[in-house]
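Changelog note: in this version the structure field was regenerated for every chain. One regenerated record is shown below for reference.
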Amino acid sequence: MFGERQVLTDVYNSDLPAASHYCQAIRSGPFAFFAGHIPIKTAEPGKPLVNSYDDVPEEGRFLSTGRSHPDSRHGPIASQTWYVYNELRRTLAGHGMDMEDVVNVSIFLGDLRDFSTFHRVHTHFFAEVQPSLCVVGFDEVGHRGTRIEIEITAMDRKSGLVRQSFPWQGAATFAAPAITQAGPVCFFSGMVGVDEAGALVRSADALPESGRNVALALEEMERKPGLAAQCWMAWEQLRVSVADAGMDLADIAMTRVYLSDPADLAIYESVRETFIGEDLPAFECVIVHGPGPVAESLVQIDAIGMK
């Protein structure tokens, strides 16, 4: 199914050279895996930073108001997001694909206050077919003043593999399905600790009875109130989404959790054990200042499953 590894965009690509020593896109059968892309013009002398509406063509300025204050506040993230997505679109087009082939997107923001502006540009590029999405706030993104890094995975529609989206059972955190199934691979959007109405849970009292006792037993260990409850709710979202797709938690191949402090991992793992204790997936824990796109999020789970 996956065929031989093929380099789509190498380190020295003339149209879009890599910012460092790596290949920007690798294809394996129907799937194309992209490195994280940042908003610097690597094909130009000095590799200048994109930092305002003046640095992108007219078509990339659709959020511009013509007023100095809002444009100076939102212009950098809007123009940087547009530039990166446009470069990714050009690369996809050069290999017979387009943005509707994108099945998963990971976003790294230097400032989570930029989320709403990023989201408006994101939905501009994915107005018709939405990929799974995970958005995280990092202390430093890329380099040289970059505010965003974007990493995508695409599946060529011409491959014949079926693509299917599974919606959230409650309110969606952002414009993305809970799961995008691409052939046998299921990409999960980031799961955060919100209830069915989309409100962040802040204590065990906000949980259904099945999770209340679990979180109550851990609350005295919390560094920040609400951590145990959010961990339980994020895992419950993952469990419900897995079941909705006709899968089992044992079908999860990889989980990546974002937390704001290493000490939080003990509570996260205690909650995880109540959901899955055997047939464990591969695991990575990343410590960041902004674990999720929702203000005051303390945890987010990113996952990939095999159906």
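Spot check on this record: Residues 1-156 form a domain with the 60s Ribosomal Protein L30; Chain: A; fold (CATH 3.30.1330.40). The chain has a mean pLDDT of 94.
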